[in-house]
């Protein structure tokens, strides 16, 4: 493997994505967790750009970083968390041992994945740039995958109606 800018950026972005995901799930403060989630979305979007999936990278930024994170922060503000003392981080030997064991197991998994895929994917497919564009994805989505697309839209509509009904019952 050669160390060109693309490979260096890939390893840096993937390291930041994994680290921010771990920090997101280990923080007690929901605001801090939401900020680490934003960093994770940004890193994943960068990984999509490096993999020549431009449309998915832009959708990642617009939909997840824009809409979903605003929704998360709105819910956190709506909960109106008053007691800040319960969000303090406490470190014990169990937590430190769990962190060290997780780092060890992640290292073993990384070595296994690296040795398993080393040298197998040397050239990119000639249609990789075409597949990542919005025209190709739109054509595939609305021709080959139109039924699953419509099914997903009905499931999302049912989830929204269910959330509204549950919220209405709570406020009545």
In short:
This protein is mainly α and 172 residues long. It is 78% helix and 0% strand. The chain folds into 3 domains: 1-86, NADH-ubiquinone/plastoquinone oxidoreductase chain 6, subunit NuoJ (Four Helix Bundle (Hemerythrin (Met), subunit A)); 91-121; 129-172.
Q: Can you lay out the helices and strands and say which pair or pack?
A:
Blueprint: H1 5-26, H2 30-50, H3 54-79, H4 93-117, H5 128-131, H6 134-143, H7 146-171
Helix pairs in contact: 1-2, 2-3
Overview of the molecule:
With 172 residues, this protein is mainly α. It folds into three domains: 1-86, NADH-ubiquinone/plastoquinone oxidoreductase chain 6, subunit NuoJ (Four Helix Bundle (Hemerythrin (Met), subunit A)), CATH 1.20.120.1200; 91-121; 129-172. 78% of the residues lie in helices and 0% in strands. It is built from seven helices and no strands. Helix 1 packs antiparallel against helix 2 (30-50) and helix 2 (30-50) packs antiparallel against helix 3. The longest helix is centred in the middle third of the chain and has 26 residues, at 54-79. The radius of gyration is 21 Å and the shape is flat. The protein starts with a helix and ends with a helix. The model has no long low-confidence stretch (mean pLDDT 82).
Q: The biggest beta sheet, please?
A: none
Classified by CATH, the class of the largest domain is Mainly Alpha
Helix content: over 70%
Written as H for each helix and E for each strand, in order along the chain, the element string is HHHHHHH
Name of the CATH architecture of the largest domain? Up-down Bundle
Q: How far is the first residue's CA from the last residue's CA?
A: 62 Å
- Poorly predicted regions are none
Instruction: Report the average pLDDT across residues.
Output: 82
Number of contiguous helices? 7
Tell me how many strands there are.
Answer: 0
Q: Radius of gyration over alpha carbons?
A: 21 Å
